[in-house]
Amino acid sequence: MSHTNDQIAGADCSRRGFMQAAAAGAGALLTAPVWAQDTKPPADDLHIAMIGPGSQGRNLLTKCLKIPGVRFVAICDVWPYHQRYAANILKKYDQPVTVYSDHREMLAQEKDLDAVIVATPDWVHAEHTVACLKAGKHVYCEKEMAHNLDACKQMVVTARETGKLLQIGHQRRSNPRYWHALKMIRKDKVLGQITHAYAQWNRAKRYDLGWPKDEVIETGTLEKLGYSSMDQFRNWRWYHKFSGGPMADLGSHQIDVFNWILDAKPKSVLASGGRDYYKDREWYDNVMAIYEYPVDGSTVRGFYQVLNTTSHGGYYETFMGDQGSMVISEDPRKGFVFRELDAKRRDWEDEAKTIETMGRDAIELKIGETLAPDGSRTPEAEKMLAESQKPVHQLHLENFFNAIRNGTPLSCPPEVAYETAVSVFAANEAVAQRLPADFKPEDFTV
Ligand SMILES: NC(=O)c1ccc[n+]([C@@H]2O[C@H](COP(=O)([O-])OP(=O)(O)OC[C@H]3O[C@@H](n4cnc5c(N)ncnc54)[C@H](O)[C@@H]3O)[C@@H](O)[C@H]2O)c1
Fold first, then answer.
1. pTM of the predicted model as reported, rounded to 2 decimal places
2. Domains: count for the chain
3. 52 located within any domain
């Protein structure tokens, strides 16, 4: 589901218009994800399972525990250490589960499962997701959708053929702060004509992941699973076989935001990268890419970098236009609007918090303050504000569970995630070939 400018055309940017927009809810104006809609508690809990309760799996698991009407009945993991860890957490929350080592056995045994969360390494996402969909389960699968485009395609096709829901874990698409940013950009046009975008994910030097010495999986079992060592099993992100590298791991979230906010798919990407620091790893540890997007008859260039040796500046996305710029991030401390000095002043700027940054005033982008600046927040604005306090992954899971219950739209269906995967994998290819990669419109469809 992508949202076109037509859906939000004809916006009234006056204060009155802004308040009306607030009353309607930014989400309603933009065909919001389901966090903005009322849902009734189901008569019965949804029965769910997770394949791969590792680091991110446990993050999702604890977020599910905050969501009413959802109950774990099974978990599956090939590592007994992680099986025990997750099962113990769930037991504490009165959700005893059956534990499996093989997802096929789980699907054969667990007849009344409604949905499965897949949080395994990227290279087995397609295997696990396709099996679950074919068994009649709805699936929430983590990003990157899969480790290559053929696997991603299989997931899209199987979701279509089975008619089951498939949500991919680009959780920014269920984040009210991003929806608010989208409204300001598309409807209120606070940036004017967007000319450039920039995003980065800079993170500090990483240390290899280890494992307790008494929790080693024996070599024969590892080999059957496709890994040659515990290092491969734990540090799969750095190997070509298991992952699309940092562009897929981190870049996919942010290139997804480029595609979403610009409401466009790239026409080309130039990129440079290398293994310049972690020389014993297979994937590039740093990539710098320039995407070109066709937007309203012009070209918008989006520069993206992912670095694994410095946390300088952290992670955020920036959209720059002839009237202003906006910084938005999953990190709630980052959300600013800069107005060009000669650009139209907005009424609501009076109430918004103004901060000084690099010698220039910026308006802080805060859900609530900018939605209902006079302090008399509408119920809808209150609801958005409350929603924006929730952990980001919880919002995306809620969107998924609400889609199962109420048939409301998913924030990140497989077709959308496929477009992101096409955009991201091409940057890896451009690095390898040392040539720009051009896209054809049909590259983005399955
Ligand atoms: N959306 C986000 O913000 C976000 C953040 C972090 C990670 N992720 C994604 O979550 C996924 C997991 O990442 P992680 O960091 O938790 O990795 P991890 O290695 O900590 O966890 C993976 C889990 O899968 C298990 N596993 C491996 N192969 C399996 C198989 N064949 N069958 C069953 N279980 C298997 C492992 O034992 C482990 O418990 C990845 O796709 C990653 O990209 C998403």
1. 0.90
2. 1
3. yes
